[in-house]
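Standup notes
- DV: blocked on the single-chain target, sequence here:
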Amino acid sequence: MSLVKKLIADKDIVFFDFDGVLVDSVNIKRDAFQKMYQQYGTSIALDVMRHHEKNGGMSRFEKFSYYHKHFLHKDLSPLEIDQMSKEFSNLVIQKVIYANWIPGAQSFLEALNNNFKKCVIVSATPQAEIEKIIKNRGMARYFTDICGSPTAKHLNLEKIMNKYYSNSRRTVFFGDAMADWEAAHKLGIPFIGVGEEIKKQLLIKQNKDCNFIDNFNENYV
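- DV (later): unblocked, structure below
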């Protein structure tokens, strides 16, 4: 029996982050941040890219505010953050729609659906944008719910558990970023890290309660 099969056998709800977990789109967004901040110099753009790669589950609204405050020493207004988010969307949305699946992810979702598991997206991507991406990728049929920002991930997790009268023991969260792990940890939800970056970050913290996979190949239910 595969690791994933054991971990989800008694689960009712399977939560997924999106970028880097189901779709290979992390580099698309990294490149968009680099392009937007290149005007401030290569050093700033590199700082932005490094932060983004280590904080994939953080919303772009928070990132724009953080980057301007810490790297450019400027506070952004809500209107400026909104304008930057729209610019960012224009750079990434079509590329994400056509990005490759993470290996095995589509078959894994098919298997979950066949086994009557509720699959739910919990992403830091803005709500309207993640809905549009999933619709245009033909993925909507896999999910009972799609949750994006600006609502915090732990609040979206909590909302879905309440909606289906479930609890943390009956759920699991697949994520690739510390923000994903933190949201799951806050609610006591079992966490499965996808990819090398989250594995490296959590092992540095000597977290022994997490499980990790490279991708979904050969991990079907």
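- Follow-up: The longest strand covers residues 118-126.
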